[in-house]
């Protein structure tokens, strides 16, 4: 069973997804940070013995390459994300998410560090609060 590997790869997916959101909003430093954290998780998952048996392995390796390419673009000063590349990355992330659909409540409600849920309504911003029952 590859539960630990799948969990690590799922976490990497979440960082890549958040990075893309930042990238699309042209928040390059935040995007780079999320991409780097996601890549670190992929590398951590790759070191585990059963990583290649994970159902997410092939897709996350493909995503890893694309994220590395994007980081190279950012490093070269190409901060504006091409619309076609953004759409392609978004599609790949959605496909990866579909393959990784889970009913595990921890996974559904997990957010990476420093990511917050907020509501913006008519210019007023409110932050979500966690209530443990």
TrEMBL record:
The organism's place on the tree of life at top rank: Eukaryota
Gene3D superfamilies in the record: Phosphotransferase system, lactose/cellobiose-type IIA subunit (1.20.58.80)
Domain annotation MIT: ranges: 5-83
Protein name: MIT domain-containing protein
């Amino acid at each position: 069973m590859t539960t630990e590997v799948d969990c690590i790869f799922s976490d990497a997916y979440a960082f890549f997804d958040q990075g893309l959101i930042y990238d699309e909003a042209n928040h390059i430093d935040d995007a780079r940070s999320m991409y780097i954290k996601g890549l670190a998780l992929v590398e951590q998952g790759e070191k585990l013995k059963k990583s290649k048996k994970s159902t997410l392995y092939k897709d996350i390796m493909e995503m890893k390459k694309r994220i590395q390419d994007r980081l190279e673009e950012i490093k070269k000063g190409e901060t504006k994300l091409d619309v076609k590349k953004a759409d392609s990355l978004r599609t790949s992330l959605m496909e990866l998410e579909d393959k990784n659909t889970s009913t595990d409540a921890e996974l559904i409600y997990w957010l990476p560090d420093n990511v917050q849920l907020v509501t913006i309504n008519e210019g007023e911003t409110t932050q979500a609060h966690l209530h443990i029952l």
